[in-house]
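We were asked to recover a plausible sequence for a given structure. The inputs and outputs are reproduced exactly as logged, with field labels preserved.

PROBLEM: sequence recovery
POSITIONS: 135
GIVEN STRUCTURE:
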C-alpha cells in the first residue's frame, strides 16, 4: 500500500510540474502575442485612419481632376488658334500641339504641371505666345 501511495504521489507531483510548465509556456506565448500586438498598434492605427479617409481622398481626386480638366480645356481653346496659325514656325506649332493639341495631350500636360514640371510648358508658352501664360 505504501508503494502504491508513493507512486501516486510521485506521479501526481510530476503531472503538477508538467502542468505548471505548460501553463508557463502558455503564458509566455500570450506575452509574446501581446508584445507583437503592442508593436503593431501604431501600424494598425495608421491603416484604420487611411481606411477612414478614403472617401475624402476620392473626392479630393475628383475635385483636382475637375480643376485640371477645366483649366486644360480653357488653355486648349486659348492656344488652338496659334496651333492652326500658318504664320508661326512649323516646329513651334508641332510643339504646341504636343502640349495642348488634343484632349489627351492637354490632360497629360496638366498632370505634368500639377506634379511640378510646370516650368517647361510655362516658359515655352511665355516665350512663343505671351507672358500672360506665366500667371
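RECOVERED SEQUENCE:
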Amino acid at each position: 500500500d505504501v508503494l502504491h501511495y508513493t507512486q501516486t504521489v510521485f506521479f501526481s507531483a510530476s503531472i503538477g510540474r508538467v502542468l505548471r510548465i505548460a501553463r508557463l509556456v502558455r503564458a509566455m506565448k500570450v506575452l509574446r502575442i501581446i508584445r507583437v500586438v503592442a508593436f503593431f498598434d501604431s501600424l494598425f492605427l495608421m491603416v484604420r485612419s487611411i481606411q477612414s479617409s478614403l472617401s475624402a481622398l476620392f473626392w479630393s481626386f475628383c475635385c483636382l481632376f475637375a480643376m485640371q480638366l477645366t483649366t486644360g480645356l480653357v488653355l486648349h481653346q486659348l492656344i488652338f488658334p496659334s496651333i492652326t496659325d500658318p504664320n508661326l514656325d512649323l516646329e513651334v506649332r508641332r510643339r504646341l500641339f504636343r502640349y495642348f493639341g488634343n484632349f489627351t495631350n492637354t490632360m497629360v500636360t496638366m498632370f505634368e504641371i500639377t506634379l511640378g514640371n510646370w516650368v517647361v510648358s510655362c516658359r515655352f508658352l511665355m516665350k512663343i505666345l505671351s507672358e500672360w501664360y506665366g500667371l
